[in-house]
Write a structure and sequence with these properties.
Chain lengths: ~140, ~140
DNA sequence: TATTGTTATACTCTATAACTATA
DNA sequence: TATAGTTATAGAGTATAACAATA
């Protein structure tokens, strides 16, 4: 990589750095997940469905910062593959709780290993302590506001 | 924000946190830049063109992690508004150096102020020292590999 | 009235391949 | 042969609005 542009002001903007880190990281993670026929977005929904929390579609939308209509399509895709199921909440029949099937949990476990490896590869320039600190700061940044 | 999902494993994946921080940050920055008829991507090209470095389109593509064909469209848009110009390199006539016009530099300066304010707003949950540390770690993360 | 999920639509962003002109 | 830029196209991601069912 040619370093000339690293001296510009843009290279110090967190917004730009986040966008670039995400572009590179997502491309790498998508490629790593391709053998499982998952992408970062579908993996994220599957992982939450397999976590035991049984989130509603509304919760998924808020947490993943996606529109509710996008969650419909993602859940449709996973449901048609037998990886997750919708269960209507008896107390509020508008809500669907999303949970993983045994097949979904198995795939989520495999995918988590792959994503963790992809993360380590993408961040090979950072020490383990730096990765932990980055995780901590990003968690604050991602959930502020 | 409902915190139930923060206890899941996904909430500790840097890939996910980066994607969420970027989604929220970009949406906010795009809204802030709208009065100038810029978005994060077009602003990034304009900022680099106005930096005095006169990058080639190839350098812009690598640095912004965009495909060369996307740079064509972005530069076309800025050029048609009189904000940047293409200058053919005399020594390698395949290359175009992209530089901002006076109007482009003026707009870039205005936009930089807006983006800096948007960044501070997006990261209001972090102290100034934490923002600096995050910037430092993201710089490493964004340019590894 | 307000909210959850759904459908539909348009727009932006991303990925790929083929082409040209130069080197 | 290889590279910078261009064009074209398709697919993924994002944003909005309207609707049905339910609260």
């Amino acid at each position: 990589m040619d370093d000339r542009l690293l001296t510009t002001g843009l290279a110090d903007e967190i917004e730009f750095l986040t966008a670039r880190a995400r572009a590179v990281g997502t491309a790498h993670a998508n490629a790593s997940l391709a053998p499982l026929d998952l992408r970062v977005r579908s993996y994220s929904v599957l992982a939450l469905a397999a976590s035991g929390v049984d989130p509603t579609q509304r919760e998924l939308a808020e947490f993943l910062s996606l529109d509710a209509s996008q969650i419909v399509a993602l859940v449709d895709g996973l449901e048609s593959r037998g990886l997750v199921v919708r269960t209507q909440d008896a107390r509020d029949r508008r809500s669907n709780a999303i949970s993983a099937t045994p097949a979904g949990r198995a795939l989520a476990a495999k995918a988590a290993v792959i994503v963790r490896r992809a993360e380590t590869e993408s961040l090979s320039g950072l020490t383990s302590a730096e990765r932990d600190r980055l995780r901590e700061l990003l968690k604050k940044a991602a959930f502020t506001g």
